[in-house]
């Protein structure tokens, strides 16, 4: 009981000391009115910087005057954490005359405060839940589960662009081709595909030029991933137990990748071959598991080897078809062929 009385007496004396300080400094501030009164000039911001730690109660009063948040590292001109602006009227309490506060500034401050309060209220009401890590879906366990009339409400995949760069360049423009090949059987999420596409595109556009390559994503995320949302709050075991209705709802999409399947392909000129390999090396870090970078022996994205393509090109047996090419064969009636395209296989002499 004695200690409680001593505590009350000390707190009462501390309150009297603060009131005496207020009386000596004449810190009479009226927030709602348009005028600020005072008997002497006093720099509140400078005092708050020097003596804010020594006098916590006075520091709170100074923060109310200056509209400074509790923790801030902003400059003297503005404190953007709370959305308020420190003006000359709030910083200096001058007793020479009344200081008129502009109505427009007050309106701007009130609007900023209302926006911040609304944003904080929305965050409290609808907290954004993080996505389940992709390591939970890495292994291929079940059958393919694509989007269908039975599997509805599937969110759109993150990757929406599969061809980047000069995708309309002809087959003769980019002879060099390199692939990023998966070395594991696993699921690759659409987020990982998008991250790899961005990383590869950034490097090639910076070092080779945005018109000097063609990048193609070779896998598509058609497999739907499900999640069975469980309560994780305190006392969740009392509200939700067991596995009744455990078939989850669609959460995302991924691509089912086999060993030796190509993930990314880049075609470019021979002078930019080292840039293409480095770009795919950086894209490897966006995928789980193991991948290998393999330089193709084919001409671009075609199925013909570089030696055969050059030879058939000289014989006019190659017909360009966009980023690919068609080979004019030796089959069929000679009467139905166009002039100059009656190709015959070389017959070895016996």
UniProtKB/TrEMBL annotation:
<dbReference type="Pfam" id="PF05699">
    <property type="entry name" value="Dimer_Tnp_hAT"/>
</dbReference>
<feature type="compositionally biased region" description="Acidic residues">
    <location>
        <begin position="97"/>
        <end position="109"/>
    </location>
</feature>
<dbReference type="GO" id="GO:0005840">
    <property type="term" value="C:ribosome"/>
</dbReference>
<dbReference type="GO" id="GO:0006412">
    <property type="term" value="P:translation"/>
</dbReference>
<dbReference type="InterPro" id="IPR047873">
    <property type="entry name" value="Ribosomal_uL16"/>
</dbReference>
<dbReference type="InterPro" id="IPR016180">
    <property type="entry name" value="Ribosomal_uL16_dom"/>
</dbReference>
<dbReference type="GO" id="GO:0003735">
    <property type="term" value="F:structural constituent of ribosome"/>
</dbReference>
<feature type="region of interest" description="Disordered">
    <location>
        <begin position="97"/>
        <end position="132"/>
    </location>
</feature>
<dbReference type="GO" id="GO:1990904">
    <property type="term" value="C:ribonucleoprotein complex"/>
</dbReference>
<dbReference type="InterPro" id="IPR018255">
    <property type="entry name" value="Ribosomal_uL16_CS_euk_arc"/>
</dbReference>
<keyword id="KW-0687">Ribonucleoprotein</keyword>
<dbReference type="InterPro" id="IPR012337">
    <property type="entry name" value="RNaseH-like_sf"/>
</dbReference>
<feature type="domain" description="HAT C-terminal dimerisation">
    <location>
        <begin position="31"/>
        <end position="94"/>
    </location>
</feature>
<dbReference type="GO" id="GO:0010224">
    <property type="term" value="P:response to UV-B"/>
</dbReference>
<dbReference type="Pfam" id="PF00252">
    <property type="entry name" value="Ribosomal_L16"/>
</dbReference>
<comment type="similarity">
    <text>Belongs to the universal ribosomal protein uL16 family.</text>
</comment>
<protein>
    <recommendedName>
        <fullName>HAT C-terminal dimerisation domain-containing protein</fullName>
    </recommendedName>
</protein>
<dbReference type="InterPro" id="IPR001197">
    <property type="entry name" value="Ribosomal_uL16_euk_arch"/>
</dbReference>
<dbReference type="InterPro" id="IPR008906">
    <property type="entry name" value="HATC_C_dom"/>
</dbReference>
<keyword id="KW-0689">Ribosomal protein</keyword>
<dbReference type="InterPro" id="IPR036920">
    <property type="entry name" value="Ribosomal_uL16_sf"/>
</dbReference>
<dbReference type="GO" id="GO:0046983">
    <property type="term" value="F:protein dimerization activity"/>
</dbReference>
């Amino acid at each position: 009981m004695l200690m409680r009385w001593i505590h009350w007496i000390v707190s009462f004396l501390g309150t009297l000391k603060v009131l005496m300080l207020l009386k000596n400094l004449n810190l009479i501030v009226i927030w709602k009115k348009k005028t600020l009164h005072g008997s002497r000039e006093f720099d509140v911001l400078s005092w708050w910087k020097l003596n804010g730690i020594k006098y916590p109660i006075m520091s709170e009063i100074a923060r109310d005057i200056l509209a400074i948040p509790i923790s801030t590292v902003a400059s003297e001109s503005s404190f953007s954490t709370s959305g308020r602006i420190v003006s000359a009227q709030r910083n200096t309490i001058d007793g020479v005359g009344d200081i008129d506060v502009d109505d427009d500034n007050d309106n701007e401050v009130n609007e900023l405060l209302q926006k911040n309060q609304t944003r904080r209220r929305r965050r409290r009401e609808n907290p954004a839940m993080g996505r389940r890590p992709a390591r939970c879906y890495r292994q291929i366990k079940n059958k393919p589960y694509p989007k269908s009339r039975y599997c509805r409400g599937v969110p759109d995949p993150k990757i929406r662009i599969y061809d980047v760069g000069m995708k309309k360049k002809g087959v003769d423009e980019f002879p060099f081709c390199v692939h990023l090949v998966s070395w594991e059987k696993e699921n690759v999420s659409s987020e990982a595909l998008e991250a790899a596409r961005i990383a590869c595109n950034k490097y090639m556009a910076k070092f080779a030029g945005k018109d000097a390559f063609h990048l193609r994503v070779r896998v598509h995320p058609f497999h739907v991933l499900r999640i069975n949302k469980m309560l994780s709050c305190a006392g969740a075991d009392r509200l939700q137990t067991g596995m009744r209705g455990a078939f989850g709802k669609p959460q995302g999409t991924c691509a089912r990748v086999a060993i030796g399947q190509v993930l990314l392909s880049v075609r470019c000129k021979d002078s930019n071959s080292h840039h293409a390999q480095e770009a795919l090396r950086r894209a490897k870090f966006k995928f789980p598991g193991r991948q290998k970078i393999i330089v193709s022996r084919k001409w671009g994205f075609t199925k013909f080897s570089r030696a055969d393509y050059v030879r058939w090109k000289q014989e006019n047996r190659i017909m360009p078809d966009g980023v690919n090419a068609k080979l004019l064969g030796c089959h069929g009636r000679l009467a139905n062929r166009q002039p100059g395209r009656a190709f015959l296989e070389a017959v070895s002499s016996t």
